[in-house]
Design brief:
This protein has no helices and 11 strands. With 118 residues, the chain is mainly β.
Length: 118
């Protein structure tokens, strides 16, 4: 059974930091690119960052470059998103997604709420 379970969301003040984590199970984690998406109220879901296994630079949305860092631990089947210098416009539900490098399998987590507000 495939599972992607996000954690670490919450309420933070502007300028603050949060670290999101996603624990994966039920598939070969190292064979998947892992991504974070987000969806704000009334907006479409958008890509935040992606990281592949085995090297290569992660990809980031322009809106988060220099503030967010994605990382993965293939030994623990986890992917994380370190979010610094948070802004109110970063408020959204954040989703973890796994995409197979070969083929078209995709798996989504259930999402975790991030709210940036004073």
């Amino acid at each position: 059974q495939v599972q992607l379970v996000e954690s670490g969301g919450g309420l933070v003040q502007p300028g603050g930091s949060l670290r999101l984590s996603c624990a994966a199970s039920g598939f070969t984690f190292s064979a998947y690119a892992m991504c974070w998406y987000r969806q704000a109220p009334g907006k479409e879901r958008e890509l935040v960052a992606c990281i592949i296994s085995g090297g290569g630079s992660p990809n980031y949305a322009d809106s988060v470059k220099g503030r967010f860092t994605i990382s993965r631990d293939n030994a623990k089947n986890t992917v994380s998103l370190q979010m610094n210098s948070l802004k109110p416009e970063d408020t959204a539900v954040y989703y973890c997604k796994g995409v197979s490098i070969i083929g078209s399998r995709q798996y989504w987590g259930q999402g975790t709420q991030v709210t940036v507000s004073s």
